[in-house]
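Retry 2 of 3 after timeout on previous attempt. Resubmitting structure tokens to design endpoint.
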């Protein structure tokens, strides 16, 4: 398994997490995880098989949480996002995991529900976030979501700290949400709120242009077609809610995510075009300035989010980042051949992320 964690010293800016302390911590974590390598399920070995199996795996019925609190966060003027929160008694006395989903997902995505359940059982409060418009919230904002809206995450973190008095936050993002949490951490750099203890990303799309090119490959038609269908369905609804903002005529001409972003996403957020959006919204631009303990898990056989951008020197040279790159695992899947004794289930990446948060909670 590809594992990367910088051993360079003295080159990073000042941070409340000293380079030496974080390096020792990440080195110890890497050793622990080396004893728990990812071995793919024998029936689902390839990237496509892993990815598709993770969607079909029969675990959703066990993950419902009817007692969760629904809460709206105001992240910008006239813009709210919906969260599902599960609190322990004396919430301020417990660490809190905040989860963000991927493209066209929601707080109800099975990986969100599963990670939330495991985190709560481990003693964490859990906040499952929806991006703008997701989870049936198109009416809560005239805008669209995009992969670089780190300012939304920043507003949510600020409210959790100031209103709820939370003092130990762990940010976890999946796919597009992974790009967003990494972008937030990179932008904040050494000025990251002291309450953020660690950041984790599973299968993050840190280079949106590369991801856009990959998803369009013929081998990925099954995913791409579904994403485009969902995006078009959503923009039709936005057009009905805000007809003065969205012209939804000739939607049949849009065949790719890039074409959708060219026509809608980039325009809605003031980018010059899709290329400008992809460049400015990609976490890879700022990952060299991440200054909180960070775990990234990304399979080398991810079928539509390429692993190659994570080989960029800005990632490998950053002593605050531990990158795990198993040869197999698919996209936000990582269904293991067998369950490790301390793991809750077969979903290896979810279990490693939770273990990382628990170790960081003890270490810092």
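Retry 2 succeeded. Sequence:
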């Amino acid at each position: 398994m590809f594992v990367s964690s910088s051993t360079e010293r003295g080159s990073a800016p000042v941070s409340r997490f000293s380079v030496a302390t974080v390096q020792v911590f990440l080195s110890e974590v890497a050793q622990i995880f080396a004893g728990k390598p990812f071995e793919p399920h024998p029936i689902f070995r390839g990237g496509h098989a892993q990815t598709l199996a993770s969607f079909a795996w029969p675990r959703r019925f066990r993950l419902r949480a009817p007692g969760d609190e629904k809460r709206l966060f105001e992240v910008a003027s006239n813009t709210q996002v919906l969260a599902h929160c599960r609190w322990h008694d004396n919430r301020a006395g417990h660490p809190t995991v905040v989860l963000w989903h991927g493209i066209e997902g929601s707080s109800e995505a099975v990986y969100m529900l599963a990670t939330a359940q495991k985190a709560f059982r481990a003693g964490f409060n859990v906040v499952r976030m929806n991006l703008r418009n997701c989870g049936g919230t198109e009416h809560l904002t005239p805008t669209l979501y995009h992969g670089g809206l780190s300012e939304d995450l920043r507003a949510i973190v600020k409210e959790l700290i100031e209103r709820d008095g939370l003092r130990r936050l762990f940010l976890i993002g999946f796919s597009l949400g992974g790009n967003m949490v990494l972008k937030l951490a990179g932008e904040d750099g050494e000025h990251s709120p002291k309450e953020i203890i660690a950041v984790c990303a599973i299968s993050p799309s840190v280079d949106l242009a590369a991801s856009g090119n990959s998803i369009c490959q013929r081998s990925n038609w099954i995913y791409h077609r579904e994403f485009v269908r969902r995006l078009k369905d959503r923009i039709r609804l936005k057009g009905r809610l805000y007809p003065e903002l969205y012209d939804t005529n000739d939607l049949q001409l849009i065949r790719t995510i890039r074409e959708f972003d060219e026509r809608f996403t980039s325009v809605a957020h003031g980018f010059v075009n899709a290329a400008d959006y992809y460049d400015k919204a990609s976490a890879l631009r700022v990952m060299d300035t991440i200054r909180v303990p960070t775990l990234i898990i990304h399979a080398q056989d991810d079928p539509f989010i390429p692993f190659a951008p994570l080989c960029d020197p800005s990632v490998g040279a950053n002593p605050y980042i531990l990158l795990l790159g198993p040869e197999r695992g698919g996209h936000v899947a990582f269904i293991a051949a067998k369950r490790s004794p301390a793991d809750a289930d077969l979903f290896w990446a979810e279990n490693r992320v939770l273990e990382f948060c628990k170790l960081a909670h003890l270490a810092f």
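Attempt log closed. DSSP finds eleven helices and nine strands in the chain.
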